[in-house]
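Dear colleagues,

I hope this message finds you well. In preparation for our joint manuscript, I am sending the Solute carrier family 15 member 2 (Nothobranchius furzeri) sequence together with its predicted structure, so that both groups work from identical material. I would be grateful if you could confirm receipt.
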Amino acid sequence: MAKKLCGTNYPLSICFIVVNEFCERFSYYGMKAVLTLYFLSYLKWDKDLSTAVYHAFSGLCYFTPILGALIADSWLGKFKTIIYLSIVYVIGHVIKSVGAIPTVGNKDVHIALSMLGLILIAFGTGGIKPCVAAFGGDQFDEDSMKERQKFFSIFYMSINAGSLLSTVITPVLRGDVKCFGEDCYALAFGVPAALMMVALAVFIFGSSLYKKNPPQGNILLQVCNCIGFAIKNRWNSSKSAPKRTHWLDWAEDKYSKRLIEEIRMVLRVLVLYIPLPMFWALFDQQVQEDSAQICTSCFYELQFKYQKQFSGNLLSYILWIMLNALMILLFVPIFDLIIYPLVSLCRINIRFIPFLCRYPSVNCSARPETCDSLNLGLLDFGASYTFILLQESGTIVAKRMEDVEANNVHIAWQIPQYVLLTAGEVMFSITGLEFSYSQAPTNMKSVLQAGWLLTVAFGNVIVLIVAEGAGLEQWKEFLLFAGLLLGVCVIFSIMAYFYTNNDPEQLDKIFLEDSRWDEDEDDNMKKKNEEIQLNKAGKSTRL
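The corresponding structure tokens are as follows:
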């Protein structure tokens, strides 16, 4: 009997899983918070190359979950997969931190270590991503369905709590702490590495409490062979052959009915997921982490350039970046405790507003003796200025002319949009995690979690294709994605209406009874054979 948490129906083991996820997300988002700026200011890459590598890394992190899921469900099991890939994750962080130490080799060495570290991090974070969520769901018994649903909400809150703290802390560590005579990127990457070590240690510490389901063999090979055999058998069948209710039934000649039914369940869910990347494509237009990353990098790049913080604006800017994560932490309990219960009883595009930014001084290289520094005053992002340098009383003074006015709409007007976006994320993302787990067969839990995460990856791919290929203005992109998502909502609603709910636990019971019946039949046949042999032996003795 699994130990329960403080008299509740929650298993004690989920505490270690939630803390592990919080530390891992802190590690991941903390590293990403300064990654673009590291490319620009430390490796001296241009903006295009930095953006390309950043997006390639982000995409790889969402395509590698399928690899981790296959390893977990087919070979090592979820527990060992999380541990081994977490070790790879830690090694990647350490290599990335070492690559940020100026005294370690030259620029080529720094680039090589950075790329190697990022590749290992991508395989580590992507590989454990579907396994941790599915492993957490495995800890609950059949009579704890409501608790399991709430677990995925708590799990998602831990993700955003880690993201919230790390996105603020690591840039401050990089800018405020100096090492080797410059900004300390080694520390900014080293702190996430330490948090990942803590995550691994916490997960291992709770190993004696975990419920560990063993892997079921090479499930990927079985699935591929079964699908291939069904297609081949259907293609080669004669017209007089009896019809089957489903095309996978053509594999019954070689494969068990249970495997065929499990594959049918997984394919049914994956087909349902086909339209979903469009949600993430639209969601990423306004609150994607990449946009916040680029804005944060630009903000700190100016700070790096002028070696001073922008008075009064850093706090407001950080708070705005934190808005989405803060709302998620607020909305998850509201939806779980108030909105969803009420619904069950009833049965029933705006760009970022620029921040004001004061440039303390700008160096003038014409005549250092008369032009030491220039105070440009308060400048608005989004505006355009022309400065005329005049000499007054022996010093150079900058006279400003505003060519294009800044946007004077208050930034608070974006809060209603963020409320709706965050509410949509809470309902969509948490429900998707729980749905992927509940609809998956026992031996394919991680695989279906990886399928859910692939919708995020393909959503990012759609954004890149449209952004790079179409070359539309920003408001037109917003309108295009909103229109596409509206069409997808109609299509998905029709698909969901005809979707047949999977019940993996009922499937286990049915085939368990069948296996017992088969065993009883085998026992009866053995007894009859033994009786026949005894009768023959008796007759031969009498003869």
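For the figure legend, we might mention the following. Confidence is low (pLDDT under 50) at residues 287-315, 349-362, 532-543. The two ends are 60 Å apart (CA to CA).

With kind regards,
E.M.
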